[in-house]
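Retro notes, structure queue

What went well: the backlog is down to a handful. What didn't: a couple of records were mislabeled last round, so from now on we paste the full input next to the output in the thread. Example, using 4-hydroxybenzoyl-CoA reductase beta subunit (Modular protein) from Candidatus Sulfotelmatobacter kueseliae:
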Amino acid sequence: MSLPQFKLLRPRTMDEAVELLAKYSSDAGTDHVGTAAPGRPARAWFARAGSPQNLSGGRGRPPLHVPVRIIAGGTDLIPSLRQRLFEPEYVLDLRGIAALRGIKPKPDGGVEIGALTTLRAIERSDFLRQHYPVLAEAAATVASPVLRNMGTIGGNICLDTRCLWYNQSLTWRKGCGFCIKKDGDLCHVAPGGLKCWAAFSGDTPPALLCLKAEIEIASAAGVRRLPLRDFYTGLGDTYRKLAPNEIVTRVFLPASSAGYRGVYRKLRVRGSIDYPLAGVAVVMKRSNGHVADARVGITAVNPAPLLVEGAPELLAGKVVDEALAEAVGDLAARTAKPLTTSALTPAYRREMIRVFTKRAVLAAANNQVI
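Corresponding output:
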């Protein structure tokens, strides 16, 4: 499948990037060939031939036109463009902005990670492996080494939700009457419902949630910072709180989350490449053999990555054994709401959340790598 037609914009600085995004996200339908920005002008040219179309809002709403898409590593966006899930007029390429790369320890013991930092760099970072091991472990499970060399932490946080009825070619989706997430008003997963249940399938966000991560979001209006847990909406279609003129620029991990033992477990059909069909992250800090603090995050079984509510209280002050780990697994399984969005059955994915949570809790308590 070929790419649709679009103009590629390549800013060199964040100021230029937010200026371009503000201009083109609010100027749909105009045939621009570039823009003058402070410093060096952005380059723009046509990609492979095709015909851009408007996106549908679904649910009986009028078509929504999203004129600009942001590309970082491109490992998720390019396949989606080929499937005609997105057909923007412009693609904003952030790869030329060096300021968005790097892992920078802070004087207070925390760390700042640029949104363009590759997953491979996170996986291999000695600092993260020592102080925030659950993040390095989760990053190491994403796709394959080749894709981790391209994919970025910002892209993994902003990953589009996935569903069997959505991640298909235009011909396939047309034959099924489209779906509520793209071009239609019917949810094939929950017929009759008005909610899109496409599953969020990023590996690093549950680890980041366990580490109390915050993200920085930039636009022409300025910069805002919010906890990652407030970034996701819990809806499969409008799954993140990010305006069309905004860019995720940095990730912050607090010093208070450093030093936790961490484990990430992932269910997938193949041992590489595949997105998670269920994923569990666990962080734990112990004192005198008892749990001082712990958190559990899950992914790929809800429209958003989630922290398992009640898990910290259930574990706090206790010695971890099989029964306690099983109780936490039961709690995680009740939090998971998988539907028929993937090739595996919802019952199996929910059960694997239970199993993986139990194993991860036991491994974290025993300081094991599994």
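Agreed that this is the format going forward. Reviewer comment attached to the example: The longest strand covers residues 278-287.
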